[in-house]
From TrEMBL:
Residue ranges the record marks as coiled coil: none
Protein name as annotated: Olfactory receptor
Protein encoded by which gene: LOC123796241
Membrane topology: Multi-pass membrane protein
Pfam family, one: 7tm_4
Keywords attached to this entry: Cell membrane, G-protein coupled receptor, Membrane, Olfaction, Receptor, Sensory transduction, Transducer, Transmembrane, Transmembrane helix
Presence of the UniProt keyword Membrane in the record: yes
Domain of life: Eukaryota
Gene Ontology molecular function, alphabetical: G protein-coupled receptor activity; olfactory receptor activity
Length: 313
């Protein structure tokens, strides 16, 4: 078969972040450390929220779901990468690649929706404080999480099914450390126009649409309208952590996806994607807990004290 002819491929090759053998132990150690910090950090945050009745609030309910989504999101890519480095194998089966794309899109979409819901929660808390408990009732919070999960599942299922219509050539090398959908679509011999349109449409829906109803300018104006400096600081501190997390996630993810439309530098996109696939989920529990007195000063200390008592016993 001549290169360039269509074929029923059975596997892809993941080139990773670097092909230099001397860098593989460093990359393995770095990503293993970040993955363990991500898992244990987010698990600790979930445990803190679930074990402390003072943290059974609307915001912490969304935060616990975000931590769970972060663990799942990172687990779709990093363990497979670590296994590839350990076994010195770059091969991933076609079925494995499609499965990874599905779960990657599922948890990435859910992550985006949860951030939008947390933004809405802060919007109501700051701009409509007297009606906050009525608007953000437990039924609405649960419904928002459920709907976001369903929409995420439908989005990932649709995009994954559209991947199945593509045919691929003999060139099946992916310049990435996981089956990133943009990189895989580029390898197709068939016309990827519908896939490209679907990806960019989903990007707009997941990024612009959920946040369109959240007027950050109105939040800022409401904060500036508070008469006392202490009141302004308290109001700003309630959304500062969220704004930082949103900036990290959206700026890096949108930057990678939009830049892929105008550049062919796959290696640069792979390195940049580390920010929103690994670094941001790792930093989230630290950003939220370090700026939250209820978590930092209460729940985490109680968990640590219980752990110490258990060790002594």
């Amino acid at each position: 078969m001549e290169p360039g002819n269509d074929t029923e491929i059975s596997e892809f090759l993941l080139l990773g972040l670097s092909e230099k053998p001397e860098l593989q132990p460093l990359i393995f150690g770095l990503f293993l450390s970040m993955y363990l910090i991500t898992v244990f950090g987010n698990l600790l945050l979930i445990l803190a929220v679930s074990s402390d009745s003072h943290l059974h609030t609307r915001m912490h309910f969304f935060l616990a779901n975000l931590s769970f989504a972060n663990i799942c999101f990172t687990s779709t890519t990093v363990p497979n990468m670590l296994q590839d480095i350990h076994t010195q194998s770059k091969v991933i089966t076609y079925e494995g690649c499609i499965t990874q794309i599905y779960f990657y899109l599922l948890f990435a979409s859910w992550d985006a929706f949860l951030l939008a819901e947390m933004a809405y929660d802060r919007f109501v808390a700051i701009c409509h404080p007297l009606h906050y408990m009525v608007i953000m009732n437990p039924r609405l919070c649960g419904l928002l999480v459920l709907v976001s999960w369903i929409m995420s599942a439908l989005n990932s299922l649709l995009q994954t099914l559209m991947m199945l219509r593509l045919t691929f050539c003999r060139e099946v090398e992916i310049s990435h450390f996981f089956c990133e959908i943009n990189q895989v679509v580029r390898l197709a011999c068939s016309d990827p126009f519908l896939n490209d349109m679907m990806m960019y449409f989903a990007t707009v829906v997941l990024a612009a649409a959920p946040l369109a109803g959240i007027s950050y300018s109105k939040i800022v104006s409401s904060i500036l309208g508070i008469s006392t400096a202490q009141g302004k600081y308290k109001a700003f501190s309630t959304c500062a952590s969220h704004l930082l997390v949103v900036s990290l996630f959206y700026c890096t993810s949108l930057g990678v996806y939009l830049s892929s439309a105008v550049t062919q530098n796959s290696h640069a996109s792979a390195v940049a994607s580390v920010m929103y696939t690994v670094v941001t989920p790792m930093l989230n529990p630290f950003i939220y807990s370090l700026r939250n007195r209820d978590i930092k000063g209460g729940a985490l200390k109680r968990i640590v004290s219980v752990t110490r008592k258990t060790d002594i016993i």
